[in-house]
Design goal:
five-stranded mixed sheet; 5 helices; 152 residues; alpha/beta
Length: 152
């Protein structure tokens, strides 16, 4: 697992619209990169809806939010459309980024899933905070409070 103070791994992954998004796109901004297990599952839906509902608060604080899973672009597009998400979901289909970040996996009903993990990345690309085994309910509020404290 990455450690606080380390640079976040460089990446370039397609979002739900097939547009490549790179770490360099967020230079000079705070970034929340949240890893989630699977599109259109209960906890992941709660998380996506929560980040969409608070997007204006994140934008006002100068914080970008992107989700990452191993689902493909088409799956992300369907997930975004179904719930009117306004955040980018990145398709890490070969799990290169989640592996580089050191995200762990757990088994659920015989299938391995990436553990829900959030990274707070500062404007220079340095990891400032890591949340492992995240519970999706109200996590966005914790992130806003913690990043606000880090920005001071």
């Amino acid at each position: 697992m990455l450690q606080v103070g380390q640079p976040f791994p460089m990446f370039s992954l397609p979002n739900q619209d097939g547009k490549n998004v790179s770490l360099s796109d967020f230079a000079g901004k705070w970034l929340v990169m949240y890893v989630y297990p699977k599109d259109d599952t209960p906890g992941c839906t709660i998380q996506g809806k929560s980040f969409t509902a608070t997007k204006a608060d994140f934008d006002a604080a100068g914080i970008a939010v992107v989700g990452v899973s191993q689902d493909d672009v088409a799956s992300h597009k369907n997930f975004c459309n179904k719930f009117a998400f306004t955040i980018d979901l990145l398709a890490d289909t070969n799990a290169a980024l989640v592996k580089a970040a050191g995200v762990t996996q757990s088994e659920y009903k015989g299938t391995m899933y990436w553990n829900r993990t959030s990274f707070v990345i500062d404007p220079r690309g340095t990891v400032r905070k890591i949340y492992e085994n995240v519970k999706p309910e109200r996590h966005e509020q914790t992130l806003l409070q913690d990043i606000n404290a880090l920005q001071r």
